[in-house]
C-alpha cells in the first residue's frame, strides 16, 4: 500500500459534485481483487467511493463544496477489503483531513446602493470626502481578498482615490455653493477583486455617492453708495430722509443682514432695513426721530457725522460688515435780537461760600437768542466788587474769585453786557443789572477778656495769644465760696454763648465746681464766675470730703459752631490731724498643730485719713504695727511663738505648736496688736485681741503588730473556701483623742475564678480563701497587695500601710487523663511485613493530664499517666474475620507495630485509652482507624485531549479542561505537569483534576501556536496515570505590524535600469503570524506615477516601467509612500516615505545638423574658385545626455571615402554642459579649381562620438563651375584651299574649326570668342 496523505488540499473550484478527491492505491500481493471500499468518519456522507478492483479505492465529492459557505474541512476514513480472510481483514485508514481552499469566485459588494455625504463649500482641495470607514463592503471570498476601488470617469474630474486599495475619496478642488453646479455632485465608486468580479443585479456595486455642498457665509456684503450726504433744515420734524441705501449680500442662504448706526445720537437719528430675495438685496432707510431737529445739537459747522453699519450673521465664526459714511448738514431758518432782563440773584450768598462759586447769569437775567444757530457770544460786566467777582466771557457765568466777609461788604450790583461775536444781532448787544446779596454766618470765634489765668484751646479756630494758666490755692477746711470771675464775647453776635465746665480732673461722682453768670444777663457776651460747691475737706472719714488735693477745671465756651476751652487750677493743702485705724480686725484664726514655722497666719490692715492720694506734704507718713502679748490657758506660749511685720501687718508662726496630750481641743491662744503713725499721733488705747485656735491633726498611721511587710502563705489545692490566710484584725491607730477608724482592702493581685467569684476575700479584716484553688490551672502562685488605711482620709493617704502577701498552691493528685486529639488515622499496605511501624496521622499522640504534669512531658515521663491499648474494644470491620486486628503497642515508645498478616482485613478500628498512676482513665477514649491500601492505579479518561484556546486567554488560574482522573482506592490524587509550560498548571479542582492557565499566562499564537503537555495524576502510593494534551492557541486579531526590512534611505535609480529590476524589499510581519487568518499583509506604493511598483504579497520593490532621464514629463526627484497594511483587520498600517531620484546615464548618441547660409539644405554647393579656409557649412551638435552632473565631450573625425585634403573642422572636440549645443565649422582645406581638378562631386563623411556612443553622417558637396574663360580656336591660323567652281554638295565639309573653352562644364556661358 502506498503512503496516504493525512491532509488533502483541494481548491473549491475543483470541489464540485463528482470531482475526484484522491485515488487510494493498494496493491495486494496475491492479486486479489478488492470487493469493498467503505467511507467512514463523521463527514463520510459528503463523499462517494468507487471500488477499483486493482488499484483500491477512488473517492470523489458528493455535491459541490463552497468554502465561502463554511465548507472548509472534512474528516473521513476508509476501509478497503479483498474479501480474502487470508489477507487479514480490511485495511483501515483513519483521520484523513480534506481541506477546501478558497478561490476568488465571488464578487465584492457594497452594503448599500447609495451614500450621502455633506461638505461645506470652502472645504479645501485634498480634503477627505469619504473616509474608508464611511463605506461598508464585503467579499465572500476569504483568501485571497485584495480588492481595488475605482471612480467612474466623470467623478475623477472633482475627486480621486489616493490609493486603490481603500475607498478613500479626496477632493481635487474647492467647491463654491454660489456656483449652482457645485451644490450637488455624484461619484460612482466601484470595487473589483483581482479576478475582475464586480457583482450583478443582486449586488450593490458600484455605490452612488451624492456629495452635497452646503453654503457658508464666505462673501462680503456691499452697499452703494459707500458715502451718503444730505442737507436738512433746522426744526425738521421726525421722519425718513433721503433715498434708501441699497445693500447686497451674495450669499444665497439666510445670513440676513442688519442695519445699525455707529457714532450717532440715537435720540436724533434711526435706521430701518429690510432684506429678501435670492441674494438678499435690501435697503437701509435713514430717519430722524426727534420732534424737532436742532442745529445746536450739531457740530459748530452745523454737521452730524456718523456711520451706517450693515452686518450679516456670524456663521462658524465668520461675519462681514459694510460701512457707509453718513453726513447730515443742518441749515438755520431764522435770526433775531438778544435779550437780558435786570434782576436780583434769587438767593443770598453766605459769606462763607467757597471761592469758585458760580451764578448762572443767563438764567438769572432771562437771556435769550432767537437764532436757530448757537453763535459765539462775548460777556462782560462793570460795577463795584469786580475784584471779588469775575465773569466768563464765553458762557457768561459770574464766579467768586476771593472770600466774602459780611462784616466788610454785604451787597454787590453789576451791569452785565452780552454781544454776538459776528454782529448779526439786532441790536448787536444788550445789558442788564444783576444784584447779589451776601448773608451773615457764624464765622467768628468767641474770646475771653481780662483772663490772665486762661489760654484759648480752639477746636475749630486759631489760638492767637495764649497765656499761662492760673493756680488757685485753698487750705484744707476752706468752706464753699466763689473763686474767680471772667468775661467772654463773640463778634458775630448771632447766637447766645453757652459757658459750662467741660471736665474736672481728676473726676468725681459729684462735681465740686460750677460756672454761673455773674451779671444780670449773659447772652452773646457777659461775665461768668467759677465757685467751689463744698468745703475743702480731705479727711477720708468725712463723707463730704474732696477726693483729691489738686484739680484742673476745663471751662468750655461755644457759640454753636466754635468751641473755646480754658483751664483753671485749684490746689488744697492738707493737715495731719487723724490717728490710724485698723480696718481689718480678725477676731479668730484657725490653724492646726501641723502648721509650719514661718507660715503666715493672718494680716492686719490700718488706714490713716491723713494719708490721701497725691498728698504732697505728708507723702512719707505710714502706719507701724506692734505685737503686744500672746497667752493661752492650756498651752505654755508667749510672744516668741509669733512674729509681726511692723510695716505690712503680716502675722507669722515662729515656733511649732504641738497639741498631743491635751484633753481639751482645740487649744486657744490670745494675741494683742496695736498701730501708730510715724508722726506719733497714734491711738495707743486701740488694741486688737486675736484668738488663735490650734487643732489636732491625724499624723500617725495604723500599726499591725506581728505581720511582716512581705508574708508567705502555702495553700493545699484541696483547701476549702474560708481558709484563713492572714489576720489583720489586730491593727490599730495610736493618735490621741482621735478615735480614728481604720479598714483593710486588697489593692492588687486578686483574680476572678469561674462564675465571677474572687479567689481571695477580706472578712472582718482577715484575708481568707474565696474560692477553691486548683494546682492544675494555669496560675499556681499569687502576689496580693493589702492596704490598711484610715477610713476618713480616703484612698492612698500618707498614713496607709501596705502588706505584700505571696500565696503558693500546693499540688495534689486529683486529675483524669485527657485526649487532646481524639481521632487518629493510618494507612498500611495490605502486604505490610511483620514488625512494620504504623504511621499515624497526626504524626504523634496528643494528650495531657489535668494534674499539670503531661504524660508525654520529657522531664516528667508518665508521672500520672500510662498509655495502654484497650484490645478488648478492638472492632472488626470485615465480618468474615473474627480475630482481633493484628497490632501491638510499645507503651514506652508509644509506637504501634504489625504482628501478623493484614491481607484478610480492609480496615481496623482501635480504641486508645489513657490511665494515670492513680488508676484514673480517659473518658472518652481516642480512636485509631487503620485503612488497608489495596494499591489500585489511577485512571484518566480520555488519555489524550485536543483543546483550543484564544490567544487572549487572561493571565489567571482559569479552567481550561477537566481531566476526569479517579482512583478506585478512593485515594486523593495529586496533579502535576510532567511535560509542560509555565503558562499552564495542573490543579486538583473538584478532585478529578483540571488543566488551567497559570497566573503568568501570556499566549501569543504568532510566537507559539500549540503546546504539547503531559499531566500526571498520582496517588499516595506512587501510582501514576498520564493525560497527553495538545493545546492549540487560536489567533485573534490583535497584532501589530513590525517591519524588519524596508528602504532605509532614499533610492537612486539609473535610467538604464531594466523593467522588473528589484530595487529593494519591505519585509514586515503582523504579530498575529503570517500563517494565521489575521496575519496577511499587503504592500502598496503611491506617488511614483507608475514608475515604481511593489509586490503586494512579498513586498519586493521593482521598476514597473522604463524611465528616461531626458523625458521632460518625468518628475525627478519624486517622493513616494511605501505602505504595508493588514486588509483583514481594521486597517493597521505602517508607511515609510522615501525620495526617489533618477540618475542620468550615457544612453543617447550625439547628433549633428548641417547649416548652409543659415538654412539646412540637402545638398552642399561649393563655388568654383573658393579659396582654402572658406567655411562651406556649419555643424550644430548636441548630446541629450549632457547634464551638469554628466558633461559630455564629443569628438569629430572624418571617415570613409572622405578626401581629408579637401575638408577640415574648425575644432575636433567640444564639451557639452547640460543641454547646450556645440557649433563647429566645416572649412576648405585647399582652393577649388573645377577646370583644373575636374571634380564635380565630393562626399564629406564624418563621425561624431562621445565616450560611449557615436553617429556617422555623410554629406555630398557639388562644385559649381564659374564661366571664367573665353572659348579659344585651336586652328585659327590654318589656311584652307577650295577649288573654284567646286560643285555645291550639301553636307560637304570645307573646313573644320576646333575651339576649346576652359569652362568646359559651363554651357551657355555667354563668352564669345
Description:
- The structure is a single chain.
- The protein is an all-beta fold and 1313 residues long.
- Helices cover 1% and strands 42% of the residues.
- It has two helices and 97 strands.
Question: What is the average per-residue confidence, as pLDDT, rounded to a whole number?
Answer: 76
Count of DSSP H/I helices: 2
Percentage of residues assigned to helices: under 10%
Q: What composes the largest sheet?
A: 6 strands, mixed
- Low-pLDDT runs of 5+ residues are 450-469, 612-620, 853-883, 1158-1162, 1307-1313
Q: Strand tally, please? A: 97
Radius of gyration: 72 Å
Quaternary structure of the protein: single chain
Structural class, from helix and strand content? Answer: mainly beta
User: Given the C-alpha coordinates, what overall shape results?
Assistant: flat
- What proportion of the residues form beta strands (DSSP E)? 35-45%
**Distance between the first and last residues' Cα:** 121 Å
Amino acid at each position: 500500500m502506498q503512503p496516504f496523505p493525512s491532509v488533502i488540499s483541494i481548491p473549491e473550484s475543483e470541489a464540485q459534485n463528482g470531482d475526484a478527491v484522491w485515488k487510494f492505491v493498494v496493491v495486494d500481493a496475491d492479486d486479489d481483487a478488492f470487493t469493498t471500499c467503505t467511507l467512514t468518519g463523521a463527514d463520510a456522507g459528503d463523499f462517494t467511493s468507487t471500488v477499483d478492483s486493482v488499484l483500491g479505492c477512488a473517492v470523489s465529492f458528493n455535491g459541490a463544496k463552497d468554502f465561502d459557505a463554511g465548507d472548509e474541512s472534512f474528516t473521513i476514513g476508509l476501509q478497503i477489503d479483498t474479501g480474502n480472510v487470508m489477507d487479514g481483514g480490511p485495511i483501515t485508514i483513519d483521520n484523513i483531513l480534506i481541506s477546501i481552499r478558497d478561490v476568488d469566485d465571488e464578487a465584492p459588494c457594497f452594503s448599500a446602493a447609495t451614500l450621502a455625504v455633506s461638505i461645506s463649500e470652502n472645504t479645501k482641495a485634498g480634503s477627505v470626502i469619504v473616509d474608508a470607514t464611511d463605506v461598508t463592503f464585503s467579499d465572500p471570498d476569504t483568501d485571497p481578498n485584495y480588492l481595488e476601488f475605482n471612480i467612474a470617469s466623470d467623478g475623477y474630474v472633482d475627486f480621486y482615490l489616493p490609493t486603490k486599495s481603500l475607498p478613500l475619496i479626496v477632493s481635487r478642488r474647492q467647491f463654491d455653493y454660489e456656483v449652482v453646479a457645485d451644490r450637488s455632485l455624484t461619484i460612482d465608486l466601484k470595487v473589483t477583486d483581482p479576478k475582475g468580479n464586480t457583482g450583478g443585479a443582486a449586488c450593490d456595486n458600484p455605490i452612488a455617492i451624492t456629495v452635497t455642498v452646503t453654503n457658508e457665509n464666505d462673501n462680503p456684503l456691499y452697499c452703494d453708495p459707500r458715502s451718503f450726504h444730505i442737507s436738512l433744515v433746522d426744526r425738521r420734524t421726525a421722519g425718513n430722509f433721503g433715498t434708501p441705501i441699497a445693500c447686497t449680500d451674495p450669499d444665497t442662504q439666510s445670513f440676513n443682514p442688519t442695519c445699525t448706526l455707529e457714532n450717532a445720537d440715537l435720540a436724533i437719528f434711526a435706521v430701518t432695513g429690510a432684506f429678501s430675495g435670492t441674494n438678499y438685496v435690501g435697503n437701509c432707510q435713514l430717519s430722524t426721530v426727534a420732534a424737532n431737529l436742532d442745529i445746536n445739537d450739531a457740530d459748530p459747522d452745523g454737521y452730524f457725522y456718523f456711520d451706517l453699519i450693515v452686518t450679516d450673521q456670524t456663521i462658524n465664526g465668520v461675519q462681514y460688515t459694510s460701512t457707509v459714511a453718513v453726513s447730515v448738514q443742518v441749515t438755520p431758518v431764522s435770526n433775531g435780537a438778544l435779550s437780558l432782563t435786570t434782576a436780583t440773584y434769587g438767593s443770598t450768598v453766605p459769606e462763607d461760600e467757597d471761592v469758585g462759586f458760580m451764578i448762572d447769569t443767563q438764567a438769572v437775567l432771562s437771556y435769550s437768542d432767537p437764532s436757530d444757530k448757537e453763535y459765539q457770544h462775548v460777556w462782560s460786566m462793570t460795577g463795584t466788587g469786580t475784584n471779588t467777582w469775575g465773569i466768563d466771557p464765553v458762557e457768561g457765568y459770574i464766579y467768586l474769585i476771593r472770600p466774602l466777609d459780611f462784616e466788610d461788604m454785604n451787597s454787590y450790583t453789576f451791569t452785565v453786557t452780552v454781544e454776538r461775536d459776528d454782529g448779526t444781532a439786532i441790536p448787536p448787544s444788550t445789558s442788564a443789572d444783576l444784584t447779589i446779596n451776601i448773608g451773615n454766618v457764624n464765622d467768628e470765634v468767641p474770646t475771653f477778656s481780662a483772663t490772665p489765668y486762661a489760654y484759648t484751646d480752639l477746636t475749630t479756630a486759631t489760638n492767637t495769644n495764649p497765656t499761662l494758666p492760673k493756680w488757685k490755692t485753698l487750705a484744707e477746711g476752706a468752706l464753699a465760696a466763689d473763686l474767680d470771675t471772667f468775661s467772654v464775647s463773640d463778634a458775630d453776635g448771632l447766637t447766645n454763648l453757652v459757658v459750662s465746665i467741660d471736665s474736672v480732673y481728676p473726676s468725681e461722682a459729684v462735681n465740686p465746681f460750677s460756672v454761673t453768670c455773674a451779671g444780670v444777663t449773659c447772652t452773646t457776651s457777659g461775665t461768668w464766675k467759677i465757685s467751689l460747691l463744698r468745703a475743702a475737706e480731705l479727711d477720708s472719714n468725712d463723707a463730704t470730703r474732696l477726693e483729691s488735693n489738686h484739680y484742673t477745671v476745663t471751662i468750655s465756651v461755644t457759640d454753636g459752631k466754635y468751641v473755646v476751652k480754658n483751664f483753671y487750677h485749684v490746689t488744697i493743702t492738707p493737715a495731719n490731724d487723724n490717728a490710724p485705724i485698723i480696718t481689718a480686725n480678725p477676731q479668730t484664726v484657725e490653724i492646726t498643730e501641723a502648721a509650719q514655722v514661718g507660715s503666715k497666719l493672718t494680716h492686719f490692715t490700718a488706714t490713716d485719713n491723713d494719708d490721701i492720694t497725691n498728698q504732697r506734704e505728708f507723702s512719707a507718713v505710714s502706719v507701724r504695727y506692734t505685737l503686744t502679748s500672746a497667752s493661752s490657758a492650756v498651752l505654755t506660749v508667749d510672744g516668741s511663738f509669733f512674729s509681726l511685720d511692723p510695716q505690712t501687718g503680716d502675722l507669722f508662726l515662729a515656733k511649732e505648736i504641738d497639741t498631743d496630750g491635751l484633753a481639751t481641743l482645740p487649744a486657744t491662744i490670745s494675741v494683742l496688736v496695736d498701730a501708730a503713725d510715724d508722726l506719733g499721733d497714734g491711738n495707743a488705747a486701740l488694741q486688737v485681741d486675736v484668738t488663735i485656735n490650734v487643732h489636732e491633726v491625724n499624723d500617725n498611721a495604723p500599726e499591725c503588730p506581728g505581720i511582716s511587710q512581705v508574708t508567705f502563705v502555702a495553700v493545699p489545692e484541696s483547701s476549702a473556701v474560708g481558709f484563713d490566710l492572714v489576720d489583720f484584725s489586730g491593727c490599730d491607730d495610736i493618735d490621741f483623742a482621735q478615735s480614728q477608724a481604720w479598714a483593710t482592702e486588697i489593692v492588687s493581685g486578686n483574680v476572678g475564678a469561674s462564675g465571677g467569684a474572687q479567689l481571695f476575700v477580706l472578712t472582718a479584716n482577715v484575708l481568707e480563701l474565696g474560692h477553691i484553688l486548683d494546682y492544675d490551672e494555669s496560675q499556681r502562685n499569687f502576689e496580693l497587695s493589702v492596704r490598711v488605711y484610715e477610713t476618713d482620709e480616703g484612698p492612698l493617704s500618707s498614713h496607709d500601710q501596705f502588706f505584700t502577701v505571696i500565696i503558693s498552691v500546693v499540688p495534689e493528685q486529683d486529675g483524669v487523663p485527657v485526649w487532646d486529639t481524639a481521632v487518629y488515622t493510618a494507612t498500611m499496605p495490605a502486604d505490610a511485613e511483620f514488625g512494620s511501624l504504623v504511621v499515624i496521622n497526626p504524626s504523634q499522640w496528643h494528650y495531657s493530664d489535668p494534674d499539670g504534669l503531661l504524660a508525654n512531658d520529657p522531664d516528667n515521663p508518665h508521672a500520672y499517666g500510662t498509655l495502654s491499648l484497650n484490645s478488648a474494644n478492638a472492632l472488626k470491620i470485615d465480618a468474615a474475620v473474627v480475630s482481633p486486628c493484628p497490632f501491638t503497642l510499645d507503651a514506652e515508645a508509644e509506637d504501634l507495630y504489625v504482628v501478623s498478616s493484614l491481607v484478610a482485613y480492609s480496615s481496623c478500628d482501635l480504641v486508645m485509652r489513657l490511665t494515670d498512676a492513680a488508676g484514673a482513665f480517659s473518658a472518652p477514649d481516642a480512636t485509631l482507624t487503620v485503612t488497608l491500601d489495596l494499591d489500585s492505579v489511577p485512571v484518566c479518561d480520555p488519555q489524550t485531549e485536543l483543546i483550543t484556546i484564544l490567544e487572549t486567554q487572561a493571565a489567571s488560574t482559569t479552567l481550561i479542561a477537566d481531566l476526569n482522573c479517579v482512583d478506585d482506592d478512593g485515594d486523593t490524587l495529586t496533579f502535576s505537569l510532567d511535560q509542560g509550560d509555565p503558562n499552564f498548571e495542573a490543579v486538583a479542582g473538584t478532585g478529578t483534576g483540571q488543566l488551567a492557565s497559570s497566573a503568568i499566562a501570556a499566549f501569543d499564537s504568532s510566537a507559539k501556536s500549540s503546546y504539547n503537555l503531559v499531566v500526571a495524576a498520582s496517588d499516595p502510593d506512587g501510582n501514576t496515570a498520564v493525560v497527553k494534551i495538545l493545546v492549540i492557541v487560536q489567533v485573534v486579531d490583535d497584532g501589530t505590524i513590525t517591519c524588519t526590512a524596508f528602504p532605509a534611505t532614499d533610492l537612486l535609480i539609473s535610467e538604464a535600469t531594466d523593467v522588473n529590476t528589484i530595487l529593494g524589499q519591505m519585509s514586515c510581519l503582523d504579530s498575529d503570524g503570517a500563517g494565521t487568518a489575521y496575519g496577511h499583509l499587503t504592500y502598496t506604493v503611491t506617488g511614483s506615477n507608475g514608475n515604481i511598483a511593489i509586490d503586494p504579497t512579498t513586498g519586493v520593490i521593482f521598476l514597473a516601467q522604463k524611465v528616461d532621464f531626458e523625458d521632460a514629463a518625468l518628475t525627478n526627484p519624486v517622493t513616494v509612500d511605501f505602505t504595508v497594511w493588514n486588509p483583514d483587520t481594521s486597517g493597521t498600517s505602517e508607511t515609510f516615505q522615501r525620495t526617489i531620484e533618477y540618475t542620468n546615464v550615457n544612453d543617447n548618441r550625439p547628433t549633428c545638423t548641417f547649416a548652409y547660409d543659415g538654412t539646412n539644405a540637402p545638398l552642399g554647393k561649393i563655388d568654383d574658385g573658393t579659396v582654402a579656409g572658406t567655411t562651406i557649412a556649419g555643424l550644430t551638435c548636441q548630446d541629450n545626455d549632457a547634464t551638469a552632473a554628466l558633461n559630455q565631450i564629443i569628438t569629430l573625425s572624418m571617415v570613409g571615402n572622405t578626401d581629408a585634403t579637401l575638408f577640415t573642422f574648425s575644432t575636433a572636440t567640444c564639451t557639452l554642459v547640460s543641454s547646450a549645443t556645440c557649433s563647429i565649422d566645416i572649412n576648405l582645406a585647399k582652393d577649388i579649381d573645377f577646370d583644373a581638378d575636374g571634380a564635380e562631386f565630393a562626399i564629406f563623411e564624418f563621425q561624431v562620438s562621445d565616450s560611449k556612443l557615436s553617429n556617422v553622417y555623410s554629406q555630398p558637396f557639388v562644385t559649381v563651375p564659374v564661366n571664367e574663360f573665353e572659348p579659344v580656336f585651336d586652328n585659327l591660323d590654318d589656311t584652307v584651299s577650295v577649288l573654284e567652281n567646286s560643285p555645291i554638295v550639301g553636307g560637304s565639309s570645307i573646313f573644320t574649326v576646333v575651339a576649346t573653352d576652359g569652362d568646359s562644364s559651363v554651357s551657355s556661358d555667354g563668352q564669345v570668342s
